[in-house]
What does this fold into?
Amino acid sequence: MSLKSQIKDELITAMKAKDEFQTSILRMLSSALKNKEIDLGHELTDEEVLSVIKTMLKQGKDAVADFKAGDREDLVAKQEKENEFLERFMPEQMPDTEIEKLAKESIQELNASTPADMGKVMGAVMKKAGGMADGNRVREIVQKLLV
It folds into this structure.
């Protein structure tokens, strides 16, 4: 079953259960997926669906930071709950030790030695990780290794 089908099935289940929280998030996600399909002009692959979810999670994390800065704890809690729900659809994240191993391999392959090479190394690590590593964690690890 594709990820998109799983989301659609969960939306139907949430609607039948009258779960307003899940229904709201899943409708928002379905809408974002439909908009992406219209932009691309084809049915989304699982990788493209994950990309949309990852974008929504990044926006949600940015919103949490903004809400904290604005001292809006009520909105922080709501947004964190939404982010937690969306993270269920993401593949399990790679441990830091594995990311560090990929980073060291990429640094050797690219003969990187200075912080100026960080972009190239990060791109290589993210490609090898295949969506199983958060960009911020990769950046921190690569930055530590290139200093």
